[in-house]
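Quick one:
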Amino acid sequence: MKVKRNTQIAKLLLFLPFFFFLFSCSDEKEKPNVYKVPNSPFEVSKISILTEGNEPIVTKKDYINCQIEIESIYEDWNFSGPGRIRGRGNSTWLWYPKKPYRIKLNENAEILGLKAEKDWILLANYRDPTHLMNTFSFLMGEKLNLPYTNHSRYVEVTLNNEYIGLYQLTEQVEQGANRVAVDKIEGILISLDADDGPELNSAGLDNFWSTIYKMPICVKYPDVEANPGKLDFVKNEFAKLEQSIKTGNYTEVSKMLNISTLIDYLLIQELVYNVEVAAPRSIYMFRDKGGLWNFGPLWDFDAGFDFDWSTMFTGHNYFKDYKKLVFGADPVNHIGGYTVPSFFTDLFKNKRFVSEYKSRWNGIKDKIMSEVWSETSQYANFSKNAMKKDAIRWPIDKDYEIEIRRMENWLRNRINYLNAVINNYPPGYL
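Output:
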């Protein structure tokens, strides 16, 4: 009897884990999921914008009142609220039918999981047949930990009940607690930009030619029009940085500039062959109170990737040649590249700078495709249907699927090519 009873107990013990499993499964159905899966940044959301009286947006200067509705697959990303909207951009606003816009909410709000602010940008990416150029560049900045790098959210936009295509929503580059968080009193945010500088914007009171390298500078913060004395302050502070860079002395420059941000910034510009650094255009820099100058945030890369400038108004031609260079094979002497301002290249005189530049490249080169391109591809995968609809709404002479494959191949070839170029830079002489 004892043996039989022990056998029965043993069989019962064998089934106990199964009973516990059933019980736990049943109980789990009744419990809320305590492990929240983060919302995917790759998902495409929908934005509906209704302007007051259905008024068309015809200017970059004047805002129009509007109502904004955002619909996401994630309930906590939905949004509804009043704001204002106007056009934005330079060539993209003037020359292309698909327009970019700037939105200003009436109140700070998180948009699609991004930190709360009022000002947001809708990039049209009309010239870019892949819709990925800015996204890839932003992700490069994020992986390299460049400060205040923008994020990407893809949205299908309806304006006054008219579908206007796939857009990239991102942050406005500006001073702010959740943007470029420099000090309100002594912080500085500038843009090195030919379109926003004294040549093309001669009436502006917020720009100047830099003292040493004669570059066009626009002061984004502080508000120098409201505080005219601040313009000379920014000009003088930037001149000190220019003077230190002119010497090529690493130790002296490091007292004024976060040199690692310059290295990462130049590597990204060269990688994507962004020739607008030669103008320069859309090159942001900032300095916090008592701190160092930094390069960033990154901005505007649809003129990179070997864009064919001869088709500026009508073409979408990229990726033909991966062997062209921005800074050349000898950056100090501008041999084999664009004649960019020496502000960006004078530190290549310095042995330590060149050594650190090469080391940084060798540390990131193998991760560009495996990490950055891999993540970029997710935006493309999640946006297939939206890209197809956009191609119908804004037909161009390019197939987005083919162009994305061309972009990938161009990047692979370019990384291999740059590897030889960068590692053979002259070693410096200071």
